[in-house]
Amino acid sequence: MRFEAERSAFLVVDVQNDFCPGGALGVPDGDAVVGPINRLSRHFRHVVLTQDWHPADHVSFATTWKRALHDTVIVGGIPQVLWPEHCIQGTGGAAFHPGLRVESASLILRKGTRRELDSYSALFENDRRTPTGLDGYLRSLDVKRIWIAGLSTDYCVYYTALDAIRQDFDITIVEDAIRGVDVPEGNVSRVLAELRGLGANFVHSSVLDD
Length: 210
Hints:
Elements lengths: L7 E6 L20 H8 L4 E7 L9 H4 L6 E4 L2 E4 L25 E5 L22 H7 L4 E7 L1 H14 L3 E10 L7 H11 L3 E3 L7
Parallel strand pairs: 1-2, 1-6, 2-5, 6-7, 7-8
Antiparallel strand pairs: 3-4
Helix pairs in contact: 4-5
């Protein structure tokens, strides 16, 4: 696979304290993605970091509904899994992992900012119609290939990859720089198999080592 730095972007999804071990919605071994991401980011001119940025009464919180964790509700015709309160705007949990090289970012994109609509994908909100603006940004740079890493595999990474494929980008997923929550059990294996079937490329972070 030929690497074209000018036409590639590195998309780092939600490497935030609340998604790392000890956080409100900690992904098992989630902080292990930081090292591979930092090593890869130096190869890219275009690095985009996404950041969940929720209001305190967000639609994705079980406490908003007074329901059990991982229940599913329907909001505006859209299924919504209920999570612990996480990545609330301006809190330490919403901050990037302290080891992440944020200075490499050419854009920081905050998503999930609307109370009534979640945004797993970095490209579209969960209605699958409302754009975040990232698609237009990448096209303005003539980006054709998106490399994706971050948290979590079976939600924000997965939906970002799906939407990127839907928008005709070539997708490369950095397999040692993703981790999942696996809710429900088996979800990580399912989504990875689906993405492979849709033509996503999978590489190890060492592929660009000098």
